[in-house]
Amino acid sequence: MSASAGHSSPARSRHVVWLWLGIVTTAFVSCSSLAWLWTAPRSLDLAQANQSRLAAWTAVLGSSLHGHGQDDDPLAYRRAVHLATTPAHHLQHSRTLTFDHIYVLSLPARQDRRDDMAKLAQALGIDLTFVDAADKHEPFLQWIAERVRESKDLRVKVMAEARGVAPSQIGGMSIGSDWVTPFPGPLNSSDPTRFPRYPRANPRLHYQGDNWVSHLEALHSAGGRHTALRPFTRRRGGKPKPHGTPSRGGSKGGALNVTQLLWDPLERQHVRQVHEGVISTYWGQTRAIKRMLENGDRTALILEDDVDVEWDLERLWNAVERRLPTKAHDEGGDNEAEWDVTYLGHCWGGEYQQPQYLNPLLHRSTGPMCLHAYALSAAGARRMLDTMLDPWSAYSTAVDLVVPSLLHIQSALDALAKREQKATLSSSGLEDPSASAAAAARRPRLINSFSVVPPLVVQRKDGPSDLQSGTGSKWRGLLRDSTVERIKRDEGSWTAEWEDRYDEATPDPATVVRCGIV
Questions:
Q1: Same domain, 75 and 140
Q2: Transmembrane segments in this chain: where (predicted)?
Q3: How far lies 129's CA from each of 63, 344, 474, in Å?
């Protein structure tokens, strides 16, 4: 045996000893942690629990590393701190990213998109539940358009009378639209009067419910019978028949021109006008939310079928999700979400305008547009569905205008409340800023929405749009680490393409909106 070999044998032996010591230590720590988690009282405060786990880990690691140095495992302490301070449900991979379900709204005919989403899900190790969208050529969407026209006619009369203005002054499709607000009169009080009960349907129509929306929902719940609905009126040469005149035959009289029927003369941007595609998208989003409530989900993520997501989506979302406001449900039970909707993806809006909320990526929403990726709590889903299916406003605008409009109106109400509180304190000779904050906290909010900035999910924009010609708006987002890019690189089909130019003469409408203050 050579001298060098003789000297290396003791070193190798020491290495083997330390290796076995590390294995034994790891096993001991794992068993100790499991035993602690099993026997710890459920009512133990989370902070105390984390401190206890950290102390136990530190003690074990300290004894095992004594005289050996941490250079052999420089991440040992980091892993210990991570285990001690991370919520238990974030320590293991979740196939639904901590949600009860991940729903994907998709046309059954777009198998190409469903295949893409299945591949994306496989790359992330997650489970998806597809929700069937409605093709924009479905006849029942024209029936909805007729009911929207009738609803708008009623709404204009009520709002014009409440505001003391001409009916021609009611309308517009921008954020805060007259078609979305739940208040018919002017916002001159922090507690304005809401719309009255929607008129009951004519008994001759034999509706299943008090109004057209409840009738539509009842038919949908009865095995999809809503698809048999047909419009009452037809348009020939742009001239409508009187509303309520039944059509004879499925195709006589020509197709109903939905855009013309619902045209808003106060809206200058053509892209905001309501057409069949807008109504079909509105319908699809309400189906996804309704499915969530039917399944009894506490939280759910709703995606469209043409998205790209961050490769590290689970870790990024976990860091955001733990900072969203919650309240203790009961002793030893799960916390209840105190948020309604959180946008993991959005477009067009300036969601950075509100301060960061306990996480550098999280902000209270300002005016988030697009619905390609948003999370809902159970309470938020109920609130959203109640608002979206109100017969006074249902299907009257693009569906992604609902939340931004409610936020815009809420901001105006908050400003009014502050002025009223200040006037009250001034007249009484008292000044108590905390009273104003307390009063604001007691008032129910129209919607409690948050946005992740920059977004964790973006639209792919690499295929034909189901709603517009081409791929729709030129606006697109970027991800730090694209899952789709990784998949395509693995397949050898990735090509880096980016249009780095701006035409001032014909700016994209999305750019115009994003550069303005909401």
A1: no
A2: 16-38
A3: 49, 18, 29
pLDDT of residue 145: 98
pLDDT for position 290: 98
Q: Establish if 8 belongs to a structural domain.
A: no
**How many Cβ atoms from other residues are within 10 Å of residue 396's Cβ?**
25
Q: Contact at 8 Å (CB) between 297 and 100?
A: yes
CA–CA–CA angle 154, 160, 166 (5° rounding): 120
With bands split at pLDDT 50, 70 and 90, how would you rate the model's confidence at 300?
very high
Cβ-proximal residues to 483 (8 Å cutoff; 6+ apart), any chain: 120, 123, 124, 308, 309, 310, 311, 313
216 near 229, Cβ under 8 Å? yes
- Structural domains of the chain, count: 2
Strand pairing report for 326-328 and 341-347: unpaired
Is residue 9 included in any domain, yes or no? no
Measured between its terminal Cα atoms, the distance across the chain in Å is 81
For residues 73 and 116, membership in a common domain is answered with: no
Mean pLDDT of 144-161: 98
Domain around 33: 16-85
